[in-house]
Amino acid sequence: xTKLATHVKTYLLNNPKLFFLxxxxxxxxxxxxFRSSLLELDEAEQVIWAQQLLxxxxxxxxxxxxxxxxxxxxxxxxxxxxxxxxxxxxxxxxYCYYLICKFYCxxxxxxxxxxxxxxxxxxISLDLLKxxxxxxxxxxxxxxxxxxxxxxxxxxxxxxxxxGIIIGFGxxxxxxxxxxxxxxxxxxxxxxxxxxxxxxxxxxxxxxxxIITALPYxxxxxxxxxxxxxxxxxxxxxQKTLFDGFINLLSASLFFIVPxxxxxYLFFPLPFKIxxxxxxxxxxxxxxLYFPVIxxxxxxxxxxxxxxxxxxxILFLIPLVFFSYLKPNASLAIYSKRFILFCLFxxxxxxxxxxxxxxxxxxxxxxxxxxxxxxxYKTNAQKIxxxxxxxxxLLGNMKLQFKNAQSYLINQGITIPSGAxxxxxxGQTMPYWAEQLIKQAKPTNIHWIRxxxxxxxxxxxxxxxFNVPDKQIT
Length: 474
Description:
By secondary structure, this protein is α/β, with parallel strands linked by helices. It has helices spanning about 1-15, 15-35, 40-50, 65-75, 80-105, 110-115, 120-130, 135-150, 155-170, 175-190, 190-200, 205-225, 225-230, 240-265, 280-300, 320-325, 330-360, 365, 370-380, 390-400, 430-440; strands spanning about 385-390, 405-410, 415, 420-425, 440-450, 455-465, 470. Helix 5 packs across helix 6, helix 6 runs parallel beside helix 17 and helix 8 (about 135-150) runs antiparallel to helix 9.
């Protein structure tokens, strides 16, 4: 048994593609089989938005929702479609990052160790697995942008054309890709070899492809900025100041950087070897410039709050700042295997935490019994034509229970068609929009949902029926 385990471990280390594929299978199955079938907030939002192919969607650029729309068309609106897209993109992130690590590290084991070090960055190894969607796509496009820029190609025109498409997709992934791109381009201009690439006249093909790729969303955003940029209010909450934004950025940066570099240093007591090359200088200058550039952007934009997860597509290369400068010796194999096993153990613990949290955590999953509510209506053979709510989480989860029902996210002026409509809301009081709809129709059932442990009201529902022309919320 020991020999078999040793052979398997050696085989996986020598065949990293299979190792990454195994990672995909485990995380994909863990989401389907070992976590609650109820959706996280980001997943529920995709159930709402990605059922239509639109030029733009609220809060974030549309590329992720476009991809999710395609999977919904192929596999249906279900948890499998959601998980397949998310963990396929995550697999792409890990593999592309590994290719970058191979480029920078002088030994294959160091490259694998640098890749495994992502598990020590909880924003990546925990938060991305938990509920993030657009952040994964932003990370993938940032990885591809960096890898494509530092590698050479036999066809220069092909290099510039593809770079334009990559950057265009990055702009369509998540808004914080712009922070990465800004910092990256500033760093590139400091390196003569890479600066010449930007000064080449072929770069106009890159710019043209960026414009063409992002044009549909750009036109939509100009005319619908109040919808597309609706989440901007999160950047400047009234109770916080500009100084709070700076402190949040500083603490987020330390939380992102310090654990992974400290633990890596403890596992690898190896000498450093300073390597001078354009790629290494780019990596070093990028991280030296990171804090002053991002601080300048944060202060200039009036950002009062900053989340650690926003750094994912910006500081994803931080393990390479350590591993790319290590000088291999005879002890490297032992150090690397210990470190990789430790990282796998940490990742396994995070998977257990996610599984435990989805069933026993103190959140609204336990407070609002989505499945039980749906079963009540299904058992009574109650037809539900429309689902109406102001909560993405409630609406997305209910949509999976009533796949044939149309979903409506409440906003002022929305028109509710005639038919049986299930109204859902969170909180201890009935919202204004629900009151207005109930006044205009004869409700067949109004029910308050209580937390079973505290007996406090946490949500409400009402089944109403319009048998008259379509009603509008005013």
